[in-house]
Amino acid sequence: MRHRLLIGLILGCLLASGAPAAAAPPEKPRAPGRPSGAPPRFDQTFELEGEEEVARLCAEKLQSGLPLTAIPASDLLLDEIALHTESGYYTVRVPLIHAKGRIERLLWDADTIEEVTTFIRFLQNGKIKLVKVKGFDDAFLPDVKARVPTADLRTCTGEGLTEALAPCRECRVIEWVFGKSAID
Q1: Coil, strand or helix: which one is 148?
Q2: Taking the CB of residue 5, how many other CB atoms lie within 10 A of it?
Q3: CA 59 to CA 53: how far, in whole Å?
Q4: Which of 92, 55, 56 is nearest to 77 (CA)?
Q5: Could you give the 3-state DSSP secondary structure of residue 99?
Q6: What is the pTM of this model?
Q7: Is the dihedral of CA 63, 64, 67, 68 positive or negative?
Q8: d(C-alpha 163, C-alpha 158), whole Å
Q9: What is the bridge-based pairing of β-strands 170-178 and 103-110?
Q10: Is a pLDDT exceeding 60 seen at residue 160?
């Protein structure tokens, strides 16, 4: 009991004397332009993430109305096909011989290894004549999106929205188009 009283008395004297506290380091001045240490409120974060979701849904809607891009199988580097596996799912990556616009590589998703081998076999045996891909990502170009009015994003109408779509470098295969001797 005496120790506690003595410690409390010493701490009280130190605080009353104005001595600097040893536990807290001195504050550094903030660099100009740095955000304050307080995180944004939950409702502000939710609102910002909600706006991003509205933009993503609008980009998806616009993209679904655009025609698919056709790429002949002869434009594919069939010797450099790669397979990416993650969590039991497969993604076949097929590079193009020469980039078509911004498209450099095609991606095809499969659930089973049998689907993967069938797709690769059809490509390498010339059964697939061409593939059709979505030519855009499910997002807007960041610099263009900043200039698009929020009302246009919410209604998903406006002149500049289609031009604001971001072209993809790795595009997802949506359709296979078979040649005359497709299935033997």
Answers
A1: coil
A2: 9
A3: 10
A4: 92
A5: strand
A6: 0.62
A7: positive
A8: 10
A9: parallel
A10: yes
